[in-house]
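Good morning C.,

I know you're traveling, so I'll keep this short. The sequence:
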Amino acid sequence: MVKTKIIAILIITLSISSCLNFYRNSEGALRPKKVEFKLDKNQDSSKTCTVDALSVYELHSTWLGDYDFNSTRKDDYNLMEEYRHYDGSLANFKTFLRFYKNGNLSFFQVDNESELNKEAFNPSKGIIGVYSCNYNGILIEEFSFRGHQGEYLNSKARVNGDTIYLINELSGYYTGKHNIFIKREVPLIFLDWKSDW
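The tokens, ready to paste straight into the viewer:
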């Protein structure tokens, strides 16, 4: 009887884990079992892309609205330095966006107490994605965690000087999460990493 229960538990465990489309790498970051970005990251030199691949962009503010740059909805607005969790505690992290010259990108979360250093921008610690420039700005696809699965999520962005205005596509009452990232200079040695997805 005990042997039958152990076999049943083993079969259920294997069934559930084989359904997952992601794994955690040695740094604990989410990765797809098979990388399947649909967005073509091959950069067309005729389409100007004004992102700086030798800098990072820090998340400054965020709000909910429509998946449209002209949206007038601005619900749940937060300055990141004042952002609080649902329990009222102050968030203890900063979010950064890094573009690579090969069309890849990463999102990083760094603890506020941690000093920025090279290891903070190690691509194996970040959320991975790709980007492509077009005439209306930048299209982005990232692999992130939603519910109980990893999911490919779409975004679009515009660059205005040192500011990136990025909207994540959502489904439901709010169709877009708006994010303002501001360029932050860091020593070039911090960005001496290769992205390999």
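Safe travels,
E.
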